[in-house]
């Protein structure tokens, strides 16, 4: 797994705990931990940190994050990506999505993009 996740401070801490338990090879950090942005850091500064340290931001901020990403790109900055958790999925399903994405993604696959979970869809398979 080459993707690294930075969990926004408003994401339930159980995500960090469960991701670390279920995918120990996945690098997962949370805002407020040592060597990460401190709690209360503004979103544009978090995006700069993610760019510098090559972390994908995982957040539940659907409202202002598109604006921040647009501003970031306008300044000729680049971010590895932003994943927005689905409020309609359980924590467990969101975690499964994050692990599947990390296991099956290429470097820079999500650069300068906002990805809304879920990426996978379970439905009828018709042959």
From TrEMBL:
Q: Give start and end of each DUF5615 domain.
A: 4-62
Q: Which InterPro entries match?
A: DUF5615 (IPR041049)
Name of the protein this chain belongs to:
DUF5615 family PIN-like protein
**Organism phylogeny:** Bacteria, Bacillati, Cyanobacteriota, Cyanophyceae, Oscillatoriophycideae
